[in-house]
Structures are given as C-alpha cells and as structure tokens.
Amino acid sequence: MSSPSDEQIEGGISNNKLHWTNVGVDAAAVVGSSASDKSESEDEDGEDIVKAHQLTDPLVLVDPNSNGPFHSRSGFVGCVRHFKAQDIPSNILSWIFDLMERNMKVMYEKSQDGWDFEDKKEEMTDRNSRYLIVFTDDSPVAFTHFQFDMDYGRQVLYCYEIQLEEKVRTCGLGKHLMTALELIAEKTSLQFVVLTVFRHNPKARAFFAKIGYIIDSTSPSKKEKQDYFILSKQIVAEKSSEKP
Ligand SMILES: CC(C)(COP(=O)(O)OP(=O)(O)OC[C@H]1O[C@@H](n2cnc3c(N)ncnc32)[C@H](O)[C@@H]1OP(=O)(O)O)[C@@H](O)C(=O)NCCC(=O)NCCS
C-alpha cells in the first residue's frame, strides 16, 4: 500500500509525541451547515446531535493541552487526524478494511452473525461515519470509527471500531484514542460514549474495563443469549429538559 502524502497527514509530527493536529486550524472553519452534512433522520435527532453532525473537524474542539502530549512507551512518533468516511483517501480506506479483516475476521467468524465483510464495509462507509486515524511517519497504524447518533433516546457518540496494528498495541494508544472520543463527546454535550464488544474478546473487554467502561443499561441480558455486550461511559449528566 502506498503511503499518504504530506498533505494527507498534514498537522505535524514532533519527536516522541503523538498529538492532536488541530493546532492552527481556523475555528471559523469548524461548522459547515450545508444540507448535505445533515443527518438523514434529523427530525428525530436531538439538538446536540444535529450540531455535532455539522462539525467539519471535531478535533478542533479538543484542547490539545487538556490531554497532554502523548509519549508512547515504545517511543513511536505520530499524529491523530479526523476524517469523514467519504473524505478518506482510497489507499487509507483499503488499509482500514485490511486491518479490520486481520484483527476481527476470526472474532466475527466465531460470532452468531458470522463474517459479512460487504455489510461491514457498508457500515464503515456510511455517510455519518467519522474516523480518527493515527499516522506514524507516513503510515497509518490505528483508527477508531465513530458516529454521532441517537441511541435509545440518548444523544451519544457511538464508537463502532477501535483497531490498532499489533506493533502499536499496549503502549497507551488505544486509551489515547478513546480519550479523544470522550473529549469530543464532552465538547459536543453528548451524554455517553457507547460501544459493542464481543463476549469472546477478553482482551478488548479488559481494556475497556480498565479505562472505565461498564455494561450499559441497553446491553442484552444473559437470558437473551447474545454474544456481545454493550458498554458505555457517561460523559455529561442527563439534561433535565431531555425527552425520555
Ligand atoms: C483493544 C485495543 C484497542 C487496546 O488498545 P491498546 O493501545 O493495546 O491499549 P492501551 O495500551 O491503551 O491500554 C490502556 C489500559 O488498558 C490496559 N489493557 C490493555 N489491554 C489489556 C488486556 N488485554 N488485559 C488487561 N489490561 C489491558 C492497559 O494495561 C492499560 O492500563 P494502564 O492505563 O493502567 O497502563 C488494541 O489492543 C486492539 O486494537 N486490539 C485488536 C482489535 C480489537 O480487539 N479491538 C476492539 C474491538 S471492540
């Protein structure tokens, strides 16, 4: 796979620091209110979800100093970039699909629904899908796929995927990406970060437990015999004016 160009990963790489790439971005460019940015189900969306859908780059909202510069324990250098699914360069999208398959195919094959990659690709390229992608030097090494969405009447940031190349695992990068999602949720006033994890993925379950995710009230009960949990972390308190 060819590497992304400098333009594709613009934002700067500093020695031994993985950092947000929002420094120097014009805040006025954050909100784009074109009709094409609106959610298909906008009528049912809460007002904070409607606003979140209009963000061009939610990383701009995250103060780069609030999470501190990231120092990888293994010393790699990198930066985090935000993309809407439709703006991801084709070579990076191919890498995303490839990493997804390498990391998750076996897990899905063990699951009740099996591995349907075409269906997965459709979900991953949905018009509301967004990504944070981590680049080291010129190569992508990790991504998280998320959406701003309504979930059982709650306004949430739904994390669909977090996938790291094996070589960059267990050095704090997964936690760094989840923290980024939590900060975005906080800045957009969304109540929860929500995600799904297979019961038969003990490493991911241990990771999410370590960083404060608990079983969500909407997670299937044991009686329902589903092979996944829905986990969540509350980010902001429920608004009293919110509809149930
Ligand atoms: C799961 C995954 C995202 C975790 O990211 P990571 O960068 O390896 O994890 P981190 O280094 O950020 O770990 C954060 C914390 O979780 C803990 N943790 C991570 N993996 C763990 C494990 N398998 N068992 C116990 N604790 C674990 C770490 O010790 C660390 O704790 P600390 O903050 O006290 O040091 C990554 O390993 C991955 O991409 N796995 C393959 C794909 C996958 O399963 N994705 C999840 C799909 S739902």
Number of helices, counting only DSSP H or I runs of 4 residues or more = 5
The mean pLDDT is: 83
- Shape field: globular
Chemical compounds bound to the protein: coenzyme A
The ordered string of helix (H) and strand (E) elements is EHEHHEEEHEHEE
CATH H-level superfamily title: Gcn5-related N-acetyltransferase (GNAT)
What separation lies between the terminal Cα atoms? Answer: 48 Å
Helical content class: 10-25%
Question: What's the architecture in CATH terms?
Answer: 3-Layer(aba) Sandwich
Question: How many separate structural domains?
Answer: 1
Spatial order of the strands in the main sheet?
Answer: 1-2-3-4-5-6-8-7
The name of the CATH topology is: Aminopeptidase
Largest sheet: 8 strands, mixed
**Helix/strand structural class:** alpha+beta
Query: What's the total count of β strands?
Result: 8
Q: Low-confidence parts lasting 5 or more residues at pLDDT below 50?
A: 1-17, 22-40
The assembly state of the depicted protein chains is: single chain
The CATH class designation is Alpha Beta
Structure characterization notes:
- The protein is an alpha+beta fold.
- The chain has one domain (18-234): Gcn5-related N-acetyltransferase (GNAT) (Aminopeptidase, 3-Layer(aba) Sandwich).
- It is 24% helix and 23% strand.
- The chain contains 5 helices and 8 strands; from the N terminus they run E-H-E-H-H-E-E-E-H-E-H-E-E.
- The chain has helices spanning 47-53, 90-109, 117-124, 173-187, 202-210; strands spanning 18-20, 78-84, 130-136, 139-151, 154-164, 192-198, 214-215, 228-234.
- An 8-stranded mixed sheet has the order 1-2-3-4-5-6-8-7, with helices on both faces.
- The structure holds coenzyme A (COA).
